């Protein structure tokens, strides 16, 4: 189906042209027989299109809260925000009757949620690995000894070995 005003190709069940905003007459909703009266066809059964809004919000919360523990997790925050913006588009497209665009926005939201989740998990793993490496190094023990020496506090760490 094409928009009569701008010629943009639109989905079969689209009520408003996404390019120019023209209200479209959807001819696929009625059935005309050669003889007899017109019988309305039932609306097509549309599957529920998920908006992933809860997942987007949880990713924003977790990446913000975990930033207090590891600064690397803040990298996931912009991707979670993009997911939230796309999840808001799903509802708007459904209300306008643009089911194809709503499905595409839902797929984009799901993609950005997974990207944000992957970055969040990767940042946590990297932070844990770096912490373990730092705590096992001699530089950490030298830092602790120097710190204690500055404040004239002497403690022998070799007692427990």
Brief description of this entry?
This protein has 161 residues and is mainly α.
Describe, in plain words, how this protein is organized in 3D.
By secondary structure, the protein is mainly α. It has a domain at 53-156. It has four helices and two strands. The longest helix is centred in the C-terminal third of the chain and has 38 residues, at 99-136. The model is unreliable at 29-34 (pLDDT under 50).
Features:
161 residues, mainly alpha, two-stranded antiparallel ribbon, 52% helix
Detail the topology: elements first, then pairings.
Elements: E1 30-31, E2 39-40, H1 53-65, H2 77-96, H3 99-136, H4 138-150
Antiparallel strand pairs: 1-2
């Amino acid at each position: 189906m094409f928009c009569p005003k701008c010629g943009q190709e639109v989905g079969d069940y689209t009520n408003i042209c996404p390019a120019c905003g023209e209200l479209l007459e959807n001819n696929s909703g009625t059935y005309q027989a050669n003889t007899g009266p017109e019988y309305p066809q039932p609306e097509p059964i549309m599957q529920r299109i998920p908006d992933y809004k809860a997942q987007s919000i949880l990713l924003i919360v977790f990446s913000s809260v975990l930033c207090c523990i590891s600064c690397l997790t803040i990298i996931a925050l912009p991707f979670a925000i993009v997911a939230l913006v796309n999840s808001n588009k799903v509802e708007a497209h459904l209300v306008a009757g643009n089911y194809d665009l709503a499905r595409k926005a839902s797929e984009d939201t799901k993609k950005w949620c997974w990207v944000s989740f992957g970055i969040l998990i990767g940042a946590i793993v990297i932070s844990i690995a770096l912490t373990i490496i730092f705590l096992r190094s001699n530089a950490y023990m030298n830092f602790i000894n120097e710190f204690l020496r500055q404040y004239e506090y002497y403690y022998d760490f070799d007692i427990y070995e």
